[in-house]
Amino acid sequence: MIPTVLSAQNWQTHQGEFIALWTDATKAYALYNNGLFTTNLTDGTYPALSPDHPGAAWFEKLSTDLNGHKPDGITHKSTAIEHFIAPNGTTPWPDMPPALGEGVHQMAVGPIHAGIIEPGHFRFSIIGEKVLKLEARLGYSHKGTLALMRGKSPRNAARFAARISGDATVAHSLAFAHATEAALEITPPPRAIQLRAVMAELERMANHTSDIGAIAGDAGFAFLDARFAWHRESLCAAASAAFGHRLMMDMVIPGGIAADIKTPGPDVILGAISALDAELPSLTRVFEDYASLQDRLIGTGHISAHLANRYAAGGFVARAAGRKVDARSNPGYAPYDVLELSVPMETEGDVAARVRIRLAELGESARIIRTLLSSLQDGAIAIAPPSGSGMGIGVAESFRGPAWHWINIESGQITDIFIADPSTLHWPLVEHAACTSIIADFPLINKSINASYSGVDL
Amino acid sequence: MVWMTLAQHLLSKPRPPRRASQATAAALAERFTNLSAVKLGRSLAIRHVAIGSCNGCELELRATQNMIHDLTQYGLSFTPSPRHADILLITGVAARNMAEALRQARAATPDPVFTIAVGDCAVDGGVFKGSPAITGGADSILPIDLMISGCPPTPSQIIEGLLSLIEAHAG
Lengths: 458, 171
Ligand code: SF4
Prior knowledge:
By secondary structure, chain A is α+β, with helices and mostly antiparallel strands. Chain A has helices spanning 8-13, 56-67, 145-149, 154-161, 169-184, 190-218, 222-243, 265-289, 291-297, 305-310, 315-319, 328-332, 351-373, 423-434, 442-449, 454-457; strands at 4-5, 18-23, 27-32, 35-40, 45-47, 70-72, 105-109, 121-127, 130-137, 252-253, 256-257, 390-398, 401-410, 413-420.
């Protein structure tokens, strides 16, 4: 893929839906829904895109903290990763301005959270229990992943792509493989393409079940949480029986997949999804029938269609707000082109709508898995990537939205790479959604969007 | 549905009980006698701290609480506050931005406390070993009593590791 070179001015005025921004040693790149564009850096700076595209702000901070490049004309000052650490190793409390007004107080949460989750700092401005403002500070899990991938062959770097965000390990491995395959102009064997989709849909189902249950659990419905967690467990056990790893980590590699599906695997997978199919109607009815549960979910954490479009949201966050996008059908990739994917849509944009989308997607993923397992083609499962050169963009629809990977390969080695997890565009939406409700609803809102910390911290 | 489940349970064989690894338990027991720590009971509260994970370890840690793995049956439970904790359970590499938070969590945990590193990342940095963005595994910030490796370790492996700790401690 050859990016279109733009002058600084055209770079700033380009119209389109903004997806991601990053820099390499000499250029800044911007990915829109209508193409990949680039402009030269001058003295390490480039014209900022965030004044027109608010979703670009986090990417601009990343370009500063990861590569030392400065966006020109920004209005945001905070950092993505390089927070201040004093020479004695202590990190002073971040100074975040509260919302203005009488009786407003601040509440600080994190970086260590109450539950079993990743670290991040949230600063709420509250009046009574109403949230007026939320500012999230991330970067606590920064591991230097992109730097570790440079200088390695795509096959050796795949294990880092698999650990960008563990809950979306299959999707990120797939996007990385797609980028590599685009750069080197290779196509994996049909059997590998089919099995990749089986894994990707299994991963989607495992995440949807556990998140739907956790949302109900937060609203006091421990029974739903227990049942959905049980299904998530059977799906992981099935993944382990079929592919040898509960999260299917390191299974998707550039050129194909690392190992074929094991013998009892398909049956165990079909058993797990049938068990879910059988119980899903009665579990869904609990969501619909209990007024106290509906009361917590309806109207909570509202994200308007306007906001979703403005930030080019993806996944169930977009589809719950009337934005019909899905990377599996647009831009699309094999094998979904022959699967007649049905993409559910809702327009309310609240927690309840996001739950309904995810419930609907469970059925669709189950259907895809059944179709694929009953039509598996024989043949090889991988081809070795040649030691060529090229630039490529790859995408895969993770359970939370599209993961984009950009890669530049020279003589078989990665010279540069950037990875945009959908969470980079979703975190600002978490900040917006929090302000539509009371503080006690924040756990529900946060879980209903489930943005990844590691995926943004890199 | 209920009858089918009941029938399945009557027909199926019980699963073998989980046991602690004797070798790990013995090694830990020796460590504890040298520690001369005040004895805690068998029922321990765990405070989990992620200091730079990919979130894979958290998924499996959460799975230890589901009804299949049922961590609570062994007297172990998670607590949101370090002040109530007997165990600090750490996942992820030692990311620079988290060092201070982990030190503060340790300072807020009453003695005696056991520290456990769960997952290859926390054990020694895992695949991220050598990255200039991190200082290594969890032991680059705090001394660690028990390491449970795996990327991520399965819920069973995590529980077996925790059981060795209880066994060594109570024994
Ligand atoms: S050990 Fe593996 S699963 Fe756990 S945090 Fe590290 S990379 Fe993720």
